[in-house]
Specification:
heterodimer, A: mainly alpha, MetI-like fold, 72% helix, B: mainly alpha, 0% strand, flat
Chain lengths: 325, 297
């Protein structure tokens, strides 16, 4: 029985009364539970790292760093390497960031800088947010039946007339990097737009007024004052959008063509780390599972670093702009 | 002295023309950029409408009551439905909710009320934020390693746990935000009356923050209901009705993934119809959470 520190703290008959021993115990118990809840998040991350790392250990010993630079994925000969997947992951995510980042930032500016009356802006914001709610597989299905047929003629025309240019080096026969990157861009657009909007909202109104007061046009104020002031938040929006693109799985597995090759061409099929896991894991034998765990560990490391960077930039800039220590 | 300085600063002669001249390069540039922004914003809203159009046209044409009561067809079979996949998705989302909501709210009370500035809270908050960007397929890999390998079989349970991993950070972060919006005065008043911290949390903070917490919970549910990557090798798929939580289980998203690559028209049509149902489920949860969020204090 724990000692009750509040015994006799108030006179009998008062409106308030000190916590009874029972309440005191419940309080202790609940606080302990809450500490457990918070610790569980930390333990979960540690356990994830430890478990995936542990499963990958045999493959790490066996293939060492050569795993990262080899281009083979041969189950029969037990030779595994993920260079094409790393290349495909970075290439598709960068293309997606280029397109999705541009559109996302423009939408954020469009929504925050009084281009629309508030009610219409709210409707438009909802449309963009709804994009984030559409499941990844549905985007994949849509990509197969809408995006690929729509861009195929353009892609093949580019290949015919500008085939010497490495980006247009092959024709688009179906799934490929470009449709995957376009769908990926649509999927990260809401993330980039939402975080950029928050960053632009944080810029003090006075700053904008001052720019207008100096005779700046609307776009001079936006491009030379607002965007630079919100640069930290916008940067973290881009980094977090990039992080999302790196880990996105289903739409890519359905659209990228799952081909284990390195190609500069936008129209060639490729493979990403996540789509490699999705397409090989269900049918993998024991040694292949170990190699896949190694690949998962690499993906985990890349996304953890990118997401930590994005989160850190965001909290630093938020603190700086809002003036709290 | 100061009057003389002020007088000297005002230029003499013609006052400058302060009207905006449309032909000037700066003004022209601004107009062009505004037009470009309108076009970009219009293009950005095309995908959503295109997706919705395809869902309604392709999925809506196949919508019937059979879809909800029949099992998926095999190969050349005609007809069929995905009743078992709807049940599977709902069951696994329910498992995820049962696991992640209590833990998430407990963690959130610690982050928001008990010790917001402690090092434990700071670390937990940072990791929860990092986890929101955690690739969903890795949740599947993780649960495969801890549950599927241990149980020796794919199961609804494993699928539910992998969804819980993805749902937890959303619940924690939104519940924390919601509890922080409860006015400090209300909490202080409760503590001043001699409430223990636990009583204050249960009687003041949680009830007042309830709409906000529900918003977060429903948002988390909406997020995981559409997930498929973590289910690929935790729940796998099944062509039969769910009989036990320890068996491979069908889900709408995996059904869409499997059927999208099949060469049969019937399966493709079913994939579109399943997409429509899945998007409707997700959108209903989203709209619900928005409605609750608006009614907040």
């Amino acid at each position: 029985m724990a000692a009750n520190a509040f015994e006799g703290a108030a006179p009998p008959g008062a409106i308030t009364h000190p916590p009874s021993s029972n309440e005191y115990l419940v309080d202790r118990g609940f606080r302990l539970l809450a500490v457990c809840g918070a610790s569980l998040i930390i333990l979960l991350v540690a356990y994830i790292l430890w478990k995936i790392g542990g499963q990958a250990l045999p493959a790490i010993y066996k293939y060492n760093l050569g795993f990262l630079t080899s281009t083979n994925w041969n189950v029969a000969e037990e030779k595994f390497g993920i260079l094409p997947e790393i290349w495909g992951t970075l290439y598709s995510s960068l293309m997606a960031l280029l397109v999705g980042g541009f559109f996302g930032l423009t939408v954020a500016i469009f929504l925050t800088q009084d281009f629309l009356p508030p009610r219409v802006a709210l409707v438009f914001r909802t449309i963009i947010d709804m994009l984030a709610a559409i499941p990844s597989v549905v985007f994949g299905l849509w990509g197969i039946f809408v995006v690929i047929p729509a861009i195929r003629p353009i892609a093949n025309w580019l290949n015919d007339s500008l085939g010497w240019f490495p980006f247009f080096g092959t024709s688009l026969s179906g799934p490929g990097l470009l449709p995957a990157a376009l769908v990926l861009a649509i999927m990260i657009l809401p993330t980039v737009a939402a975080i950029s909007q928050d960053a632009l909202h944080l810029v003090p109104y006075r700053t904008k007024e001052a720019a207008y007061g100096m005779g700046a046009t609307r776009w001079e104020a936006i491009l030379k004052v607002l965007v630079p002031t919100a640069a930290g938040g916008i940067a973290s929006a881009m980094v977090l959008g990039f992080g999302r693109a790196l880990g996105e799985t289903m739409a890519l597995a359905m659209l990228i063509g799952n081909s284990n090759r390195i190609s500069l061409s936008l129209f060639a099929p490729a493979q990403t780390l996540a789509s490699l896991l999705a397409s090989h894991f269900p049918e993998a034998g024991q040694t292949e599972v170990q190699a896949l765990m190694y690949a998962a560990l690499v993906l985990l490391a890349i996304t953890l670093v990118v997401n930590m960077m994005g989160t850190a930039i965001l909290s630093v800039t938020q603190r700086r702009i809002s003036g709290r220590s | 002295m100061s009057e003389r300085v002020a007088a000297a600063a005002i230029p003499v002669g013609e006052p400058p023309d302060l009207r905006r001249s449309w032909g000037e390069r700066r003004a022209l540039r601004s107009t062009i950029l505004t037009a470009a922004a309108w076009i970009v914003a219009a293009i950005a809203s095309v995908p959503l409408f295109s997706v919705l159009y395809m869902l309604i046209v392709q999925g809506g044409s196949r919508l019937s009551l059979d879809l909800f009561t029949e099992l998926p067809p095999a190969g050349f079979e005609l007809g069929g439905g995905f009743g078992n996949a709807i049940v599977g998705t709902l069951v696994m989302v329910a498992i995820a909710a049962v696991i992640s909501i209590p833990i998430g709210i407990l963690a959130a009370t610690y982050l928001a009320e008990l010790s917001p500035d402690s090092r434990l809270a700071g670390t937990a908050r940072f990791l929860a934020k990092v986890l929101t960007g955690f690739p969903s397929i890795l949740a599947g890999v993780f649960v495969y390693a801890i549950i599927v390998l241990a149980m020796g079989s794919y199961s609804a349970l494993a699928g539910g746990v992998s969804l819980a991993v993805l749902m937890l950070p959303t619940v924690v972060l939104t519940a924390e935000e919601a509890m922080k919006t409860v006015p400090r005065r209300m909490k202080d008043a409760a503590l001043g009356m001699g409430c223990t911290r636990t009583q204050m949390i249960w009687k003041i903070a949680l009830p007042t923050a309830l709409p906000g917490i529900l918003t977060g919970v429903i948002l988390g549910v909406a997020r995981v209901a559409g997930e498929s990557a973590p289910l690929l090798f935790t729940a796998l798929f099944s062509n039969y009705w769910l009989t036990s939580l320890r068996e491979p289980t069908a889900s709408l998203s995996i059904l869409i993934y499997n059927f999208s690559s099949m060469p049969f028209d019937n399966q493709i049509e079913l994939a579109w119809a399943a997409s429509l149902v899945l998007v409707l489920i997700v959108l209903v949860f989203n709209i619900l959470s928005r409605a609750l969020g608006r009614s907040r204090i």
